[in-house]
Every structure is written in structure tokens, then in C-alpha cells.
Amino acid sequence: MARLTPAPIDDVVLVEPEVHGDDRGRFVETYRRSWFPLGREMIQANRSEKRQGAVVGLHYHLHQADYWYVLRGRARVVLHDLRVGSATEGVTWSVDLDGAEDRGLFIPPGVAHGFAALSDVLLWYLVDGYYNPADELGVAYDDPAIGADWGLRDPVLSARDQNNPRRDQIPEAFRPRAGLRR
């Protein structure tokens, strides 16, 4: 069994799976659909490798949930609840995921998410929707209203992430609403 811990942001779940090991190595059940009340079938798996110092995000989706699992390295994950009407709207939370610690993170639609590579990182993640450029949205990683602590001095960012709007500049049509999965 896994230990499931609700995060300070509604519907976000931190997973600490049971690890089984012996002299041959170890086995970990990393994901189970039944762990997440708002989860749907995960239909695509992705792999992201980043060098130390990179920051990815903050990204968000109106329709897609993510499940993240760091396989190698250490990442500072930053989440921010953008969902209008959510009890935790405006809350920012960060958690370090380390490949040596076996923890996963369920991120529902409407919660902005990103990570800083505190070392070289290999992130494996599942999504419950196929890639849809219309649902690939972002908010400024350095927005003072979000107040993210990335744990890095001079982050390396993509052009996309350098140009995301601040939270108060997100067009109304792209603002997530609470209850997207209820």
C-alpha cells in the first residue's frame, strides 16, 4: 500500500509508495488509478530530462491532470492553485521530489505546476489527455503574486517560460474554475 497525503492545495495528492527490496534490488508500485478520486485513466507517459539549474513552468491545463515521479536526481516542484472558486485558490506550495525517496505527485487541472532541477533530473510523468497545444497554458514562473521559491539563483528557462503572463494577465477564457473534475 501507499501512503497518500493531501497537500495544502485541494485535490493535489503526495504519494509515498511502499518499497520492497532485498539483495537483488527493489520493487515499487509507483501509480494506481484508485489512489486519486479525481483521476481518470492515464493515457500518455512522458519522460523529461533536465540539467541542474533548469526551471520548467509554471504550466497549467484546463482539462488534463498529471502524475509526476522523479526517477533520478532532485527537483523542487512548485504548485499554485489558479482555480477560481477553489477553497485554496491562490495558494502556492513547493515540495522536493528526489529519485532516492520514491514519491509521486498527482496534479489536477487548473493547478499550475513546474519544477527546478536542483541536480540533473529524470522525471517520468503520466497524463490523462493526449498532447493538446490548446490546453498547454502557462503563468510567469517569477510572478510576485505567486511567490515561488525555486531554490535556484540563475534559472535556465525556455523562451516559452520566459514569456508566460503574470497571474493577473491571464485572459478570462483561460482561467481555470473550481470543480473541473467534480
Task: Break the fold down into its secondary structure elements and pairings.
Blueprint: E1 3-6, E2 13-16, E3 19-22, E4 25-28, E5 44-50, E6 55-60, E7 66-72, E8 74-81, E9 92-98, E10 104-107, E11 111-117, E12 121-127, E13 137-138, H1 159-162
Antiparallel strand pairs: 1-2, 2-10, 3-4, 5-12, 6-11, 6-13, 7-10, 7-12, 8-9, 8-11
Pattern of helices and strands:
EEEEEEEEEEEEEH
Based on the structure, what is the oligomeric state of the protein chains?
A: single chain
**How many strand elements?**
13
**Biggest sheet statistics:** 6 strands, antiparallel
Structural class per helix/strand content? mainly beta
The global form is globular
Q: Please, what is the average pLDDT?
A: 95
Strand order, main sheet: write it out: 1-2-10-7-12-5
| Global Rg | 16 Å
Helix content: under 10%
Q: End-to-end distance, in Å? A: 25 Å
If helices are DSSP runs of H or I spanning 4 or more residues, what is the number of helices?
1
Low confidence ranges: none
Indicate the proportion of strand residues: 35-45%
Task: Please tag this protein with its features.
182 residues, mainly beta, 6-stranded antiparallel β-sheet, 5-stranded antiparallel β-sheet, 2% helix
Can you offer a commentary on this structure?
With 182 residues, the protein is an all-beta fold. Helices cover 2% and strands 39% of the residues. The chain has one helix and 13 strands. Strands 1-2-10-7-12-5 form a six-stranded antiparallel β-sheet, with no helix packed on it. The chain has a five-stranded antiparallel β-sheet with strand order 9-8-11-6-13, with no helix packed on it. The model has no long low-confidence stretch (mean pLDDT 95).
